[in-house]
Each structure stands twice: as C-alpha cells, then as structure tokens.
Amino acid sequence: MTRRRARPLKSHIATRLRGVAFSYPEIGETRAKPPDGYHHVHREVVVGSGRRRFDEIAGAIETWQVQLGAGLRVYASSETIAAGTVARVAVGVGPLRLKAPVRVVYVVDEADRRGFAYGTLVGHPESGEELFCVELRDNNTVVFVVTAFSRPHTRLARIAGQVGRLGQRAITARYLRAMRTWVPRD
User: Fold this and answer.
1) What confidence tens digit (pLDDT) does each residue in 122-160 have?
2) How many Å apart are CA 176 and CA 8, to the nearest integer?
3) How many other C-beta atoms can be found within 10 angstroms of the C-beta atom of residue 183?
4) How far apart are CA 154 and CA 159, in angstroms?
5) Taking the model in full, what pTM does it have?
6) What confidence score (pLDDT) does residue 159 get?
7) Which listed CATH number (1.20.1740.10, 3.40.30.120, 3.10.450.50, 3.30.530.20) goes with 7-21+37-180?
8) Can you give the residue ranges of every domain in the chain?
C-alpha cells in the first residue's frame, strides 16, 4: 500500500467542528482501561521488526494512512495528526456516504510507542474513542494496535444494532490489514 493524502477539510467546516462537543464524557480513556457501558475493541497485528519499520508505521499512522488504507475517505484540517486536529471520516459512496466527525484527543509520542486517539463528535453515529498506535516491543517486534470503545449515538446506529457491530469489525480488520501491508513510497 502506498501513501494517499487526506483531503483538506474546508476551513469553515473545520472551524465549526472545533466548536462541536465530544459525544461522550470519558475523553482520553483509551489511555488506560476503557470505560464500562461501551463495546470494547482491542486488536493488534505484527507488522514487521526493527526501528526502521517502527518509524515507517508511525509515519503512516501520523498521516491518516490507517483510515485511507482501510478504504475510508478522510477530510482533515491537517494532513499530519496533532492534538485538536478535526476531521470527517467518510465511508460509503454518493448519497449513501456517511461523514463522521472526529477530533484528535491526544497524540502518543514515546520512544517505543507512537500514534493517536480520536473521539467522536456530536453528529457521529457512534459515541466513543479509538486509539491507533505502533509499538516496538522488547523482542524488536513491531506491533500495530487498535483500541476502542463505542456505543450507538444516533437512532439509526441503535436500529442497526448487530449489523453496525459487524461493520465496525470489518473496518477494524481493514485497519489491521492496511498497516500489515504498508509500504512507504520511495
């Protein structure tokens, strides 16, 4: 998979999204134990070994390649992730395209762990948070990790029920596959 670019979010939409509230109160809870009352996800996949591979995957995560590689469209206030970056992550086609607003809650920038978490904003069909990070383990293995908690926020999401959960599982699997097969552009 080669690098794609997030599309720029129109400035008036970015300004509006910066003022929109998160749709859940447990901001930043993907740092520790996800809160009760939500569906929890924790998935990880080995994506290689060594510091160079770690840096490649970290760079991919920090430029929306997880979402883009999973087939989602990203309209973002910045091509590079930073705390406070706002975006609409879109899935579907044409009039059936769903644009879900999110804001980056925090960035992970440690020697052996890098990534970010974003939280859902009011207007997103789900309510919760998702963490995307890469870890360089003691045995030199590079692991991509997705941790999330969510629950339906809109009426449509509640009606979707298990079908919605199946869709989330499929997207998570696509996130993992995108990073497992990530090859940086020369």
Assistant:
1) 988 889 999 999 999 999 999 999 999 998 766 666 566
2) 25
3) 10
4) 9
5) 0.92
6) 64
7) 3.30.530.20
8) 7-21+37-180
